[in-house]
Amino acid sequence: MNLITDRWIPVIRQNGQTDVIAPGQIAEADNPVMEINAPRPDFQGALYQFLIGLLQTSFAPEDENLWLDYWRQMPELKELQSCFDKMAFAFELHSDGPAFLQDFDLPDGEIKAVSALLIEAPGGKTLKDNLDHFIKRDSVNQLCPSCTASALFTLQTNAPSGGVGHRVGLRGGGPLTTLVMPKLMSSTLWQKLWLNILNQEELNSAEQIDAQVMPWLGKTRISDKGQITSPNDVHPLHAYWGMPRRIRLTEVAEEGNCDLCGCHADSLFREYRTKNYGTNYDGAWLHPLTPYRFDPKKVNPPLSLKGQQGGLGYRHWLGLALQDNENGDKAAKTVQFYNEERGRKLSDSGGAALWCFGYDMDNMKARCWYEAQFPVFYLSQQQRENVMVCTGELINAARETVKMLRNEVKAAWFRRPEDAKGDMSQIDAQFWQATEADFYRLLEQLSMLPGDIRMAPSEIYANWFKTLNTKMMQVFEAATLTSAPEDLDLKRIVNARKSLRNKFYNNKNIKALSAKARPEEVA
Amino acid sequence: MSELNTAEKQLQSWHAWLGGNRGDRARLRRAESPEDILLTDAFFHFLEKMDQADPGWSQQTPMLASACIAGALSHVKTDKQTPSWIHNGKDKTDAAKKIASFAEQLATPPEGKNKAPMSELRFQQLQKSPTIDDFYRRIIRAIRLLDGNVNVVSLANDIIHWHQEFNQPFGRHPAKRLAVRWATDYFTALPKNKD
What is the mean pLDDT of residues A189-203? Predict the structure, then answer.
């Protein structure tokens, strides 16, 4: 199968029908494609990134004006297809020569079942020790070419560390991806993708498609002696096509049904060969679709933000959508570009939201898949700074509150709370969820303020103070008192509640918040 | 079911009336459970008085809850209204607004002493009363431990609240439960409160 000329991407069209298309067909004007229809959420994210990669590599607009033209009017089908066709030679899924995201030459190697391409699949040691309790072995034995291609891209782009010499992805294991999505429900897939394409002034295009851009077109830059691959060694577009794992698929000419999507296929994939010491990405890589944390001392290279236990909430909003000065988190390049440039031009077409997704990995174990939508606003330079300062204060106060809340719930539950082990993150999650709606309401108010008002009005702080206080108490009471109170150790609970209240009112950050909540006295 | 807001004065005046009718009071005091009270003259007088203040009061309040209040009041010597220190803070200069609740009184040591009138163990027993009769007995004991000096309105309200929760499923907000409210007041006022 060729990933450019064959139809393999599952989609939904405007009239609601499902279809399978070749990449170029995203520019069909008649009954246009609206959304990708992948069988798994991680494939959904991967297919978006695959198409964005294709567009960025072969169809990046020369400047912002040209970008805007294509935003208003999608290109002619033929125009796009001829651009894609030039790369078709590099996108064979199975061939004797170079094959998509697979090692250039790998005669020998460990044989693995195709299910190992899926990130959550139990690993070798898990199977040996019979520990595959939740995700069982042998649930996926054969994949159709379409799912294989998605799985391969998902693995190479999210690759966690997989044992000695099995390298992590270009952005580290399990990175977050943030895509700018138009808010309008009637947006086509073309618009959703195009919003994440940078023009050539922002990101150089490649003169020719070779191993500098797509690593599988040449010999793999192996790393058995610790050799690294830094951004200077290859073309910047390489970021979209990172290939840390050495993999070679084995196709079986036998028809059957895919274990993932259930579709019928003429040929299936059951196994692949793999070997360690593939490309070792190191150095200051910056993937344009991923937010990074920058070292304030500028000593260490930036680290990509990863999925974390507890998921994505508004506490991450500042780092994902703008810039969190507290910890150095900075939004992805495409998001920054939207904030600074595109937002203004597109404000009349309904605005945009931030779609944010990624795995929460614990080394090789996939703990969870997280996905969230955040608002983004177009703001002037001055407004942006004001919003950054103010939301930073709000989020900080909430972080302090949740810490106190967690400790006091523990004190109410256990006689010796310092000895009690266990996962208390459910309390955090409840609190974040309870305060989320209020945060976004205040955020919207903040984003409307004119830039020359430096201090946010006191009502915002007062509102937030009240929210934190009441929600904190509500979560505490729900966590400690919901069973019949007569049977509980009420003394411990009452004392914990009292100390929670005391700590809350005496906390430095909360005090600062409530100081700002008082309207300035008129002299 | 009505809270005792308008009926506050009536409640206090009935308590005063009881002081002048020793025979009625003695009969109430001898009662071992609210049921013993239902057929006394004093109880009819009580219902009549309450209905004057709040028409329909005797219809809305369960009979046994009313009986429990009447019986409990017969053990009260004085209606003690002291400022609450847990709600008003330490400064005594301001005119105190809140009055100490029944549960707070149970934990506040009498002047010159440093032990709560009702021990923690007894308090927990009171909290866990399984039947109306048990609750009645324990409430009377609590009043005796306070030497009959009780905030009458708070006591009556809490008795109604207890019967309400006894007859109906609990509400959604745990903090509004009587047990939680009592525990909050009691343990906040309790001297040397450490586990």
Answer: 93
Are B174 and A478 an interchain contact pair (Cβ–Cβ within 8 Å)? Answer: yes
Please report residues of A whose CB lies closer than 8 A to that of B127: 486, 490
Which residues lie across from A19 on neighbouring strands? A11
Q: What is the tens place of the pLDDT at every residue in B121-155? A: 999 899 888 999 999 999 999 999 999 999 998 99
Residue A157, H or E segment: helix A145-158
Classify A247 as helix, strand or coil. strand
Using an 8 Å Cβ cutoff, are A408 and A503 in contact?
yes
Q: Which of B120, B180, B195 sits opposite A485 (nearest CB)?
A: B180
A–B interface: beta-carbon pairs under 8 A: 43
What is the rounded CA–CA span in Å between residue A140 and residue A256? Answer: 13
Positive or negative: CA dihedral A395, A396, A400, A401 = negative
d(CA A102, CA A93): 8
pLDDT in tens, A260-293: 999 999 999 999 999 989 999 998 899 999 999 9
Between helices A508-517 and A381-413, what is the axis angle to 10°?
130
**Hunting for tokens 């009363």 — which residue is that?**
B129
Interchain contact B188–A (C-beta under 8 A): yes
Cβ under 8 Å to A: B residues 114-143 = 120, 124, 127-128
pLDDT tens per residue across span B76-104: 998 888 887 776 655 555 555 678 889 99
Residue of B nearest to A482 (CA): B174
**Cβ atoms of residues A158 and A119 within 8 Å:** yes
Enumerate the H helices of B8-91 as residue ranges: 8-20, 22-30, 41-53, 57-60, 63-75, 85-88
The number of residues in chain A equals 523
Q: Diameter of chain A by CA atoms?
A: 85
In this predicted model, what pLDDT tens digit does every residue of A61-90 receive, in sequence order?
Answer: 999 999 999 999 999 999 999 999 999 999
Please say whether the beta carbons of A476 and B175 come within 8 A.
Answer: no
Which two structure tokens, joined as six digits, stand for A315? 């506490």
Whole-structure pTM value: 0.82
Counting Cα atoms < 13 Å in the Cβ hemisphere of A321 gives: 29
Specify the DSSP class assigned to residue A233: G
A415 touches chain B (CB under 8 A): yes
The rounded Cα A182 to chain-centroid distance in angstroms is 17
User: What's at A509, amino acid-wise?
Assistant: N
- Say if the Cβ atoms of A497 and B184 lie within 8 Å: yes
pLDDT in tens, A374-401: 988 888 888 888 888 899 999 999 999 9
pLDDT at B2: 44
* B9-to-A9, A432, A459, B24 alpha-carbon distances in Å: 79, 47, 42, 20
CB A409 within 8 A of CB A328: no
Ramachandran category for residue A198: left, alpha or beta (phi over 0 → left; psi -120 to 50 → alpha): beta
Please give the Cα distance from A427 to A409 (Å, whole number): 8
Closest CA relative to residue A150, chosen from A42, A75, A241 = A42
* Distance from C-alpha of A38 to C-alpha of B126, rounded to nearest angstrom: 61
The phi and psi torsions of A145 (rounded to 5 degrees) equal: -55, -35
Q: Which of A185, A189, A203 is nearest to A239 (CA)?
A: A203
Q: How far apart are CA A322 and CA A331, in angstroms?
A: 5
Query: What is the pairing mode between strands B149-150 and B78-79?
Result: parallel
Dist. CA B75–CA B32, nearest whole Å? 12
Torsion sign (Cα): A167, A365, A214, A355: negative
Mean of pLDDT over chain A: 90
Determine contact: A348 vs chain B, CB below 8 A: no
- Residue (of B102, B191, B187, B101) closest to B142 by Cα position: B102
